[in-house]
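Checklist before submission:
- one chain only
- standard amino acids only
- sequence pasted in full

Submission:
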Amino acid sequence: MSDKGFSGLTVAAFENRMAAELDGLIERYGGRPMVTPAMREVPLEDNREALQFGERLLAGQVDMLILMTGVGLETLIGVLKTCHPLETITEALKQITLVTRGPKPAAVLKELGLKPTFTVPEPNTWRDLLKTLDANCAVLGLRVALLEYGTTNAELMEELRERGATLFRVPVYRWALPEDLDRLREALGNIAAGLVDVLLITNAVQVDHVMQVLTKDGRVEPFKQAVNRMVVASVGPVASERLQHYGWPVDIEPAHPKMGTLVKETAERASALLKTKRSA
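Returned file contents:
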């Protein structure tokens, strides 16, 4: 592993949901992990939109459900079960077109005894979603529900409406900063001080939150100077776009937008890339 691993490099990440798994992967590939969450899921206090979706679904007023998130689908089903029997919900879902953004929501559907009508292929971006719909199912005149994943994608919504869909959002949770920012600030300070060699970005919202904290603390420039001397790896195109938006480098983007592939490919390339960047 030593010739293809991190070989003792310090590897930072801002993962929340899979923090323990990511920590273990970094160690497995010979790195010293510094995984500090930059976000947390906050359930909505008011699930009005989710309950309204349930009423529309059972009334036959939904033609398509776009599932952007597996956790979101689990949450949605939990909300709907407070008002309707699970069998009634699943039977109604069988009657509509189900579009899943990648394997995670498809796995949740399988647990419910359902199959997606269409699954968006890798790298599972919202643009890939639109390509899938354009190739397989025109949305003109359809009543389309969009199950969100913690944030609203205004560009996707605009594109769907331009294609003639009658669209309504179904939010079930939102992303927020960690309640205690001390750990995150400490991690950002270590990065700015040059104590970190590799940074793994596994979600675009992480970048927004880090920039929010750095801006508030007046530490944007020292941080950006530091990341330009590190290896920055992005899990996929959406995260890469966000990094580039803020002027961060993107040194590695794996062949498949999965956390395991991200760690493996970064471990294989990090030492050589780091040597090149720091000698430039």
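Reviewer check: The CA atoms of residues 234 and 240 lie 6 Å apart.
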